[in-house]
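Justification of resources, computational component.

The compute hours requested in this renewal are based largely on the per-chain cost of generating structure records like the one below. Each record pairs the submitted sequence with a full structure-token output. That output is archived, and it is also reused by downstream analysis tasks.
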Amino acid sequence: MKNIFILLLLLSLGTSCDNDDGNATNESQCNYQGFSYFDSNNDQTLIPETELDTQYFPNASNGPYGAPGIEIASFTSSPTLFFTTNVIELNETGPGWISINGAELEGVTVTCQRAGTAVGDEVRLDVIYGSMELEFCVIIDEVL
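The structure output for this chain reads:
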């Protein structure tokens, strides 16, 4: 929790993180990919997509928390990251969980802005933690 709080505190200083407000470069497509935020001037990528592994679980029997879902992880980047959610339908909003640098999982609110179900599909998830808005714009690497 301490790592997430520090990361979010640093990002919240001077940021306006609304990636879907009509002004962001990724409004209609992911012009950048990874784990990012918008700082009122530019897209800022925290972890590039090339360092993220995205898995889609279409079946409740093997999905996170007993339902179809998505897991996004990077254990080679700095910071390391693990994220999971069952929010996979376009415009759906619900819970997700994130851990940075191996910290305890923290609850976040997730909105699916672009849904995908196959390897190579783009998925875009808006993630809100407190007053911070971050975004995953990733490519599905594996369907399990």
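Helices lie at 2-12. The two ends are 29 Å apart (CA to CA).
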